[in-house]
Every structure is written in C-alpha cells, then in structure tokens.
Amino acid sequence: MNKRQSRIFAIVATGIAAVAFVGLTLHSHTRFDELTNAQDITPEVTAGKDVWHKYNCINCHTLFGEGAYYAPDLTKIAQHRGEAYLKAYMRDPSKFYDEQRHRRLMPTQNLSEVEIDNLITFLDWVSKVDNQGWPPRPIMVTGGAVNVAAQGTDKALTQSQDVRPVSPDNDPRALGEHLFRSATPVCTACHSLQPGVQLAGPSMAGMAQRAATTIASPDYAGTATDVEGYIRESIVAPSAHLVPGDMFSAAGVSFMPNTYAEALTEEQVDQLVAFLATMK
Q: Keywords in UniProt for this one (predicted)?
C-alpha cells in the first residue's frame, strides 16, 4: 500500500467510525427515556439527587460505575438492601459496624428524615434504570465481595468448610444453593457463606446450629419447632423472631425482605431450606 492508498484508507476508516459513533449516539438518545424510566422522575427523585450532591456521596461511592471507588457502588443498593435497612443505616451507620473490628469509615451525616426519604427515592429510581448489566464488577461489602457477575452460574460464589457439599444434579439442596445466589432480591447481597463474614445480614455459616439454639431459647418469639421450620419462618416471615441488635431490624421489623413468600413457590422455599439446613 503506497502513501496515497494509506491516506485514503485512513480517511475512509475515520469517516466510517465517525458515522458509526454519531449513529450509535443518536440511537442511544432515542432510548434514554425508556431505559431510565424518565416518567418516574418525580420531584422527590430530583430532590434525592440534590441530597446525593449536597453531601458529596460521589466522593466515596459510584453510580453506574462512575464516581469514587473508595466505597461500594450503589447502583442497585435499593434492591439489595431495601428501604427499612437504608433508612436505619443513613440515620446512624455506626450501629451497623464494630468500630474496632471493621474500622467504620462511613460518617454520620445527620440527614433529616425528608432528606433520607428523598435520597432513598432517588436510589430506588437509579436501581430500576436498565443499565444492561453495567458495571460488571463485584459490589464490595464489609468483610468480602459479592460477585454480581457470577450470579446465576453453577459455580459457588464462596467456599467454606462449614458448607456441606451438595450434588449438582436435581438434589433439592443443590437447587436451593442456586436459588441462594439467584433469587430476587439475591440472598448473597446480604448474607455470606463464610464464617465470620457478616454483611447486612448474618453469615449463613453455622445457620443450622444457631437455629437449634434459638428455638430452645426462652426468648424465641416465633412458632417453629425444628431447625427446618425456623429457617422457613426466617424466609417467609422474617419479623416473626428478631435477632437481637440494631444491625438487623428497626422498630420491630426485620430488614430481611418480606416478599419471598410471594416471589418463591413452596417448592423453591423447600429447596432453600434444604440448602441452608446443611450449614452446620
């Protein structure tokens, strides 16, 4: 290829790339309203965005992968944690950490109740934007990471000696393990399978032993009579018995979503129970 041919090739290639870029940009703009649910942008959502900027949340957190990487990406946090948890957390983050063990770095911002409500409304809107799976990276949480990109695969997210191996076939325990990593809201967003790794909810390592101890306790407020029954109750009626401490409940209501009874079939709940009962 001589100089003239090289010049022509470069000009044509640049022109084609420019046309493709402009075309894709215009196409994106035609879909922004649909992808972002623009019709749901209420005054409260806008006010919540203002709160996000007022307190410089982006200095530590990211949305859609954009921002600082000092703290967790919050793109889907409203779906992963829920309103009750987020409200209690924003009021006083110190209740969710052991200062000596976890070195809490989230400051107490002293937000007003209106600011908290608006910020949660904003984060809820953000969580429903169709971001086509971006960013495809782990959501970092205290003590470990939840690999969102791995959810839905047949490979376990975590390995622990406290987790009894289950069959990859049609064993209910194996199906329950898959549900643990793929149900909505996803269980791994709040619960670890590693002993000692406590996220928004308690670690599932040793779940069966703790369940037996809880049922035998005079402080138990639920109706279960065995380990499997307690695990089932924790899934479908999480506020039946509240684990002591401010980390897991507020005003007598568990932070655990109460939607699994409707979102899961009886068979799926049985599968989850079968899997969690292996956590000796």
A: Electron transport, Heme, Iron, Membrane, Metal-binding, Transmembrane, Transmembrane helix, Transport
